[in-house]
Amino acid sequence: GDSDALISKGLVALLVLCLSGCTPEEIAGVQPEFIKASGISASLTPGRNNGFFNMFKLMNKKVARLKTAKAAESGEAGGKADPQAGEDTETKETPELQIYNTLSRSKEVFQTLEPGKVKMYVCGVTVYDLCHLGHARVMVFFDIVARFLRHVGYDVTFVRNVTDIDDKIIKRSQETGETAEELARRMEEEMARDAKSLGCASPDFEPRVSESIEEITSMVETLVKKDF
Fold first, then answer.
1. How many angstroms separate the CA atoms of 191 and 120, rounded?
2. C-alpha Rg value of the chain to the nearest Å
3. Are the C-beta atoms of 59 and 22 separated by less than 8 Å?
4. What is the pLDDT of residues 72-121, one digit of tens each?
5. How far apart, in Å, do the first and last CA atoms of the chain sit?
6. Mean pLDDT score of the chain
C-alpha cells in the first residue's frame, strides 16, 4: 500500500544521504544485518525487506573490489612521479568502458555514436500513484550513471520520459474523482519531490508522453517498417 511505498522511499533516501561522502572504509563498516534486526520487516513486504538486505551485501562487495583496485593501483605506481604531471592538457581522453549488451548477452566495449558524447534515454515513471522502491532504484542508478560518465569526460544528454497516459492513470483518476490529467500532474510533482529527496539531479529533458504522441507514432511506424 501507500505506507509501504513511503517507508521504502524513506529508507532509500536515508541510505543515500547518510552514505554520501563516506570513505570506502566507512561504507564497508555498515552491516546489512541491521535491516533484519531493526523491526522494519514488520512494516515492509518480505520482498522489499530482503531487497534492502541484499542491497547492503552488494554494496559491501563493490567496496571490497574498490579497495583492492586502489591497492593494486598504488602498488603499480610505486611512488614514481608522473612525467606528465603538471602539464596542461586541452583534451581529456575518455576511458575505455565495458557494458553488458542485452542483445548480444555479453560485455562489450562502450562506443558512442559521436566521439565523446553520450545520449542516454531512460524509461520514466507511469504517474498513477506514489513512487515505490523500484522507481527509487531507477532514479538513483541512472543518476549515478550520468554523473559517472560526465566525471570521466563524456558530454552527456540525459533524457527520462514521464508516462502520463495509461489505463492505470485513467482507472485511478476515476477512483479519486480527478481527471486523468489532474492525477498525472499531481503524481508527477510527487515524483519530482521524491527524486530530489534522493539527491538525484534533474534530467536534461523530461518529455511527457501526452506531448509526444506524434513523435511516438512516427517512431513505431519506422520500427514496424524495419520488421522489429
1. 20
2. 22
3. no
4. 777 665 555 444 444 443 445 667 888 899 889 999 999 999 999 999 99
5. 38
6. 80
